[in-house]
Amino acid sequence: MELALPLWFEVGSLVVLTLILVADLLIVYKRPHVPSMREAGLWVAFYVGLALIFALLMLVLGDAEHAGQFLAGWLTEYSLSIDNLFVFVIIMARFSVPRKYQQEVLMVGIIIALLLRGIFILLGAQLIESYSWIFYIFGAFLFYTAVKQAFSSEEETEDKENAVIRLLRRRIRISSEFDGSKVRTQIDGKKVFTPMLIVFIAIGTTDLIFALDSIPAIFGITQSPFIVFTANIFALMGLRQLYFLLGGLLERLEYLKYGIAVILGFIGVKLVLHAMHENELPFINGGNGVEWAPEIGTWTSLGVIIGSMAVATVASLIKARHDAKKSGVTLAEKISVDAKE
């Protein structure tokens, strides 16, 4: 289905979103601090509300299909962004980044993520327009990623990060102490890099990996570059505040990776079925579309995404509460202690 929105709405939306991101960046730069739970909560609520208002505008100016595709895409990217936060937590802890400067690190990570995803969106849109069979590759890649997501362990991730860290330390001179948020400082009259450089590189590498996963996933929901890009922007907006809001709760969402794996696997299957339906490869059904291959609708996708995340979150919280009870404390007390560590 070819979707079209008024040009003024598309251009205006991108301008407004850019201004909001710039304002957010300036706030972090001018006033680095650890946001309170109330402040973080209000910001997250603001960005979520903004996304829902945007979906409503798409419903009014476009139709239900526009709004549904945006919501499904936004929720998919939001869930993947939350998964991204797990790795950010590991990176922050590994390098003992002062909490006062974690906001700046997160903002740099979000900017890098936007740039990388923007590039991949343009490449993905061009590939889809030129080669319909690319959906087979996207689908297979997402299914592989889903399996890897479900069965990978945290130890494997940490080992890979250690290898990157060791390589960087062998190649460049890095001080043992942070100097505020500076990337480069002076010690005994010599210029050296601070650990912040490695933190930024680690964050950027993580963003690259997650961009490779997220872009094929959302193209399985919509082929509109505008919806793909705005869904990514809204998913990343407020991610910095969400990091501080969730705090120790992130580590308690043990089953979240399974919910994300289900979403990625589902979209992978959806992409392959779509590719079969629109098939042009000569060695598959003589180059004709496979008529029995069903097209999975936007609202079905939205239901699977919401259901998967809801089940994974509730199951994680039930297990976390059970584990906390065994330790003789409440879940809230356990989260509060972890967030301070």
Tell me about this structure.
The mean pLDDT is 81. Helix 2 (37-61) packs antiparallel against helix 3 (64-94), helix 4 (99-130) packs parallel to helix 7 (195-219) and helix 10 (256-277) runs antiparallel to helix 11 (298-326). It contains twelve helices and two strands, in the order ααααααββαααααα. It is globular and about 70 Å long. A two-stranded antiparallel ribbon has the order 1-2. It has one domain. With 341 residues, it is an all-alpha fold. It starts with 6 loop residues before the first helix and ends with a helix.
Brief account:
This is TerC family protein. The protein is mainly alpha-helical.
Biggest sheet statistics: 2 strands, antiparallel
Task: State the helix count.
Answer: 12
Count of spatially separate domains: 1
Radius of gyration: 21 Å
List low-confidence stretches: none
Mean pLDDT: 81
Going across the major beta sheet, what is the strand order? Answer: 1-2
| Number of E-type strands | 2
- Which percent range describes the beta-strand content? under 5%
Q: Helix/strand-derived class?
A: mainly alpha
In which range does the helix fraction lie?
over 70%
What form results from the Cα inertia axes?
globular
Taking the alpha carbons of the first and last residues, their distance comes to 51 Å
The ordered H/E elements are: HHHHHHEEHHHHHH
Family: Belongs to the TerC family.
Main location: membrane
Organism: Cryobacterium luteum
Membrane topology: Multi-pass membrane protein
